[in-house]
Amino acid sequence: MRPFRISKANARRLPALGAAFFIALGLFAPQAQAAPTSTPQAKSPAPAAKSAAPRAIPVPKSPDTPKDDRPLASDPQAKPTAPTAGSTVGAAKPSERTAKQFSAAANACDVSAFTGNTGAALVQQVKSAGLDCINTLYQLTGNDAKAAFNEAQMATVANALRDVSATYPGDNSTSAGQLVVFLRAGYYVQWYNPDVVGAYGTTLQTAIRGALDAFYAAPHSKDATDANGATLSEAVTLIDSAQENARYTGVVKRLLNDYNGTWPASMAGAVANTETVISRGFDLPAFTSALQADPSFATTMASFVTRNSAQLNGGDLVTKIGIQLGNYVANDALRAQGRPLVKDLINRYPLVGNTGPLTMNLLWFTEKKDAGNCSFYGTCDVPAKLVPLVLKTDHTCNANLRIRSQSMTAQQFADTCTSLVNQDAFFHKVVKDNGPVANDNNTSLEVVVFDDYYNYSLYAWEMYKIEVDNGGMYEEGNPATVGNQARFIAHQADWLRPSFQIWNLNHEYTHYLDGRYDMYGDFDAGMTTPTIWWVEGLAEYVSYSYRGVHYDAAVAQAGKGTYTLSTLFDSTYDNSDSTRVYNWGYLAVRYMLQSHPQDMDALLAKYRAGDWAGARTLLKTTIGTSYDADFATWLKACAADNCGTLPTSQAPLCKIADTRQFDKNCRRDGVAATTGNYSYSFLYLPAGVQQLTITTSGGTGNADLYYNGGAWATTGSYKAKSTNSGNGETLTIANPPAGWVYFSLFGQQDFSGVTVTTTYN
Fewest C-beta in 10 Å: which of 186, 484, 598, 710? Predict the structure, then answer.
């Protein structure tokens, strides 16, 4: 990944790209049968898993990573003072609606009625329109935006809101809601189109202050009812849209003080919207000054959290508002007010569980914005405390490999160990090394697995002091240091559940092996000259080849012929996008290993000795452009799915007693049958399997391979077959059904000693 090998001495870190994966599933076996006269019962299928791989640098996490409602302080923020888009009550936000829906709403909403009216006519049009209609105005641009939302139009509507608020009845019977939403839409459109709409000045400021003053002075604006909350929610957000955050700190305090867990939903929504007023307010000097002058604002926020702590679950309004106290310690003028309150909350609530999002986000502020003061906060030992609190399951595969996780099962541990241990032999077969490079003491790897991307982001930054806006992180450290611990920090691919995957596992394990057996020294040493084509290309090559997964994206790129081989030798993280780094790195490595193995032996000898200049000379001078034409020819063949023969990885022997039953990634040797007879087999597939591969090889005679899904496979009943001469047969079944599936070898001639292997992903 970028970069893939890290020296802890200079704290460089690696964001891991999720191009490789491993699926480990608990399988169920049928009862042993004497003959194929009945069918094992399949388990009820689960929803099919969805696979994908991220394609972004330098944020290489899967695009399928689910968005979690719980906040992360490290999440990228929107434009600091940009008004919030869309009405939050009464209609969907524009960002949540399809273009077709907008088009339909626009057809029912005559924009000219807003752009072609002024004064009382405009006010009447706004008040009579539906909220759904007004929400479409957020999309206005050009002359329509100017005609609807110039300062005179906005001031007219603001004054109308002032007048309506004088007798506000606590519901929308007087159309206060429409007036508020129109004003919000105007601020939003003007923010993104200031040159078109024109500037907003004191005329509008005076009008909006009069409107908000009148609304919040209305007795019924304090009603704790759904009817009032619908309009109040919009009015709270309007405070921020108009950047009047400092003027209405009293309104925010009142809502926080009055709120209790029994309030109806829309009133709770109004309280939740105070987070927008608070968080964006910290970007406004006037807001900071108002908080300096009123220390009770901070204590109100803290009291709001402690009084409503029973609601804390990470995605709740109490958590989100409580986190905003962190902005106090991020602000030089407010830090003294915020420190004791933040300290109390961090030490009051557990670091894990429902309160974890609150405490970990506040901790983030203390470390990132008030660095060097962990003694004051009592948090210096938090990294060490978190490890046993978060990583509750621990498994040692062997003396060189340990896995720590939040919640992996015994079967998942075992399958992961098997995948990694078996990969060792495959890797060494590819690179043909003679053992570790000199002075490499990375004798063991620790694999850390969080339950999902959210937990990885919430905890890994503190536990391991890494960046977490990525799909994982591999830390090589300084391999020359005795006792150095290499570590891959990862997370489960929760979007693929119920299938179990550790995102990036085999790709990153290749980096560990490559660093130990091919690349002398630490990361900085390996980056002396461009080596990315090799280190990332090899990780892709081993990952896909070892798992027997067709690299669709790379084959598709081969057809484009974008790069020459000599150009790929120059790839760096800075001059390459993810496609060049990963897809084309794979293609370059595959071509060189298959077509020029002697050159690769010579190159790796130089890498292993740390002769970076010599390696560069070999690539750019000795080889230079001499292979470019042949590489281009090879790419055309590869695009037609004729990329050459990949190395094979012998799967482990199947362990189930019934010799007819297979499992994931296992083989049976010595399979035999006489002419005209069958060797029947079956295996259980969990839901979501995307590709099943059955291969036969070796032995004597001639066996043909038949597959028949959910019934016994014969020459007269099959869904797929492979009937080559001899015993070299392969069947690849896309999206096979969940449950028991069946295949058989038919004896065209007596056959014996055949090896049969099943793999799936």
Answer: 598
112 neighbors 121 (Cβ within 8 angstroms) = no
What six digits make up the tokens of 16? Answer: 């891991």
pLDDT for residue 172? 95
> What DSSP string runs through 289-302?
HHHHH-THHHHHHH
Helix or strand (DSSP H, E) at 473: strand 473-475
How does pLDDT run across 155-192, given as a tens digit for each residue? 999 999 999 999 999 999 999 999 999 999 999 999 99
d(CA 318, CA 303): 11
Is residue 406 one of the residues assigned to a domain?
A: no
The span from the CA of 575 to the CA of 569, in Å, is: 12
Give phi and psi for 649, each to the nearest 5: -120, 120
Domain of 147 in residue numbering reads as 81-244
- Give the N- to C-terminal CA distance of the chain in Å, as an integer: 23
**Cα distance between residue 705 and residue 697, in whole Å:** 11
Alpha-carbon distance of 220 to 238, in angstroms, equals 18
97: in domain = yes
Q: What is the dihedral of CA 284, 290, 296, 302, to 10 degrees?
A: 0
Same domain? 164 vs 236:
yes
Cβ–Cβ under 8 Å, residues 510 and 539: yes
Please state the φ and ψ torsions of residue 403, each to the nearest 5 degrees: -120, 130
Contacts of 601 by beta carbon, 8 Å cutoff, 6+ apart: 432
Q: 450 phi and psi, to 5 degrees?
A: -85, 160
